[in-house]
Amino acid sequence: MANYINMPRLGLTMTEGVIASWAKGEGDYVEKGEVIAEIESDKSVVPFESPESGTILKLLAAETDTLDIYEPIAIIGKPGESIDDLVAGKAPETAAETAAATEPVAAGADTDYDIAVIGAGPGGYVAAIKAAQLGKKVCIAEKEHFGGTCLNVGCIPTKALLKSAELLGEVKEAAAYGVTGIKSTDLRIDLKDVQKRKAQVVSTLVNGVEGLLRKNGVTVKKGAAEFLDANTIKVGNETITAANIIIASGSAPKMLPVEMSDKMPVYTSTEVLDMTNAPEKMTVIGGGVIGVELAYFLASIGVKVTIVEFLDRLLPMVDKEITDMVEKQFADMGIEIHTSAKVTAIEKDGVAFEKDGKLQKAACDAVLMAVGRRPYADGLQLEKAGVRVDRGAVATDATMATNIPHIYAIGDINGKSMLAHTASMEGIVAVENICGHAAKMDYSKIPSAIYIKPEVASIGLTEEQAREKYGNIKVGKFPMMANGKALIEGETRGIVKIIVDEKHLEIVGAHLYCVHATDMVAEMSVAMNLECTADELVKMIHPHPTVSEVIHEAAHAAESKAIHC
After folding, report:
1. How far apart are alpha carbons 409 and 241 in whole angstroms?
2. Among 544, 552, 556, 564, the one annotated catalytic
3. For residues 10 and 26, is the Cβ–Cβ distance under 8 A?
4. pLDDT digits (tens, 9 = 90+) for 519-550
5. How far is Cα 296 from Cα 301, in angstroms, rounded to an integer?
6. Cα Rg for the chain, rounded, in angstroms?
7. Residue 266: its H or E element
8. Is residue 487 helix, strand or coil?
C-alpha cells in the first residue's frame, strides 16, 4: 500500500525543513535506511533515510522547497499502484496532527506506560527525564542506587578522592608560592575524613537525581527488574507493561580468571573507593583509565604502587606520545610499571606475572583488580523478551534500538563506550527515536577524560590512527611550559596536540595532557562536531592569560607555526 514519506523532525527544536537535494527520483527503488534526500534545518544539512522500502512514486516537493515537519514530501509504494487519493489528499492541518498519528501506542490504551526505563544511572535517568519532558508517561526502575555506577562507585567518588590527594600535594608545595608556616612533615591524609566528604558529595548528587525525576513527573519503581515478555517487566512484586522499554542496567567490575589466595585482600574499583586504611604496598592489575586514576591516588597518599598491565603500555586508548609522558610521570612518583605482563596468580604475598618469558612477582599487601567492566544483564531475563546479546552486551544499532524494535539499550549494557556522558547522549537518542524523531549516535567524537595531575583528555583519532586513515596529516603541538597561566598555576608539564587532515585542515583528533585538560576538551568537541578546521580555529580569539590559549597555539602550529614557541 502506498504511503507518504513525511518531512522528518531532525531535532527537538526543528519546526520546518528545506529539501536541499533529492538523492532519488520518481521511479527509483529504495531500501529502508537508504538516503533519499538531504534536509537542511538549523543551518545544518542532514541525510534523510527512507523509512521503508519501495519505489518512489511521486515527489511532492522540489529542491529548495520549505515544508513543516511531518508534511508529506513524497509517496512511496509499489509500481503501478494508484496514488490519486494521496496526490489529491490534503496534508494534515497541523504538524501535531501528523505527529500524533505516527506516535507509538499511547499509555492507558494497551500499556501502563509509554516508556519504561530499567536502571537509573546517567543513561537511564536522563532518558526518563527527557521522555517525560516530551510528554510521555514514564516509569523508571532502579534496584540499588540512583545515579548508577558513575555517581555511586565510579566517576564522582573517584574524583572526590583525587581532589583530596591533589589538595594534599598543593599544601605540601605551598612554600613555593610564598605561603609559610606549614610543616609538611605534619601533613597526612585521614581516609576516614576523606570518606565522609566523598559520601556527602555522592549523597547530594544522588538526592538531586531523585528530585529531578520527581520534578519531571517520572514514576519511580524501586527494585530489580526482569522481563516477562517484550512489553512486560516485573519490578519486585509489581508487573508493568510499556509500549517501549529502555534497558540501562549498567556494568559490573571484571575479575581475572586466575587463582587467588584467600590470604591476599583483593579489591575491585567498587570496594577500594570505601577504603579507610591504606596498605603499605598495593599492586594494581590493569593500566586503563580506572587503574591509572586509582594508582595515582594511592601513590599520592603514600602507598607504594606497582602496576601490572597486559598490553604494551598504559592507557592504550590514548595517543602514545602522551602515554609515554604519563609513564615517565608515574615513574618519577615511584610507581613501578610492568607492561606486556600476564598475571598468572594472586598469591598470599604478591601478584605473580609472566613477562619476557620469565615468571616475576610484585610483592604487596593488597591488590586492586582494575581490568575493566562488563555489561550487567544479570537477572534481566533478556531471553524472555527475545533481545539479542552479542559477547555479553546487548546488541544495538545507531538509533539505540535492539533487534526488538520497541526495546532500546543504552550505556554500559551495550558495551560500545562505557562513559557516563556517552550513556546520557544514548538515552536522548533513544528517546528521540521513540518519539518519532530521526536521531543517530555518533561514536567518533566522544571526549574522554583521565583525572590525574596533570589531567589527560582526548577526542577523535590518535596520531597513529589518523595516519592510517588519512595518510598525510598535520600535527600541531604546543608545550605547557610556554603558557603563562600554566606557569602561574605551577603546572607546566604536558602538551596540547591537535591533529588535522592535510587536505582540508579539518580537525580529526585532539589530545591534551595539562592542567584543566578535562574542561578544555569540550572546546575541541564543539569544534570537531562543527567540522572546524585549524585555520578557522586560529581566528577564534582566546582570553589571556588562560590555559585555553594552548589550543589556539596548537591550531597555529598545525596550520603553519605557533606564535609563542
Report:
1. 17
2. 544
3. no
4. 999 999 999 999 999 999 999 999 999 999 99
5. 9
6. 27
7. strand 266-268
8. helix
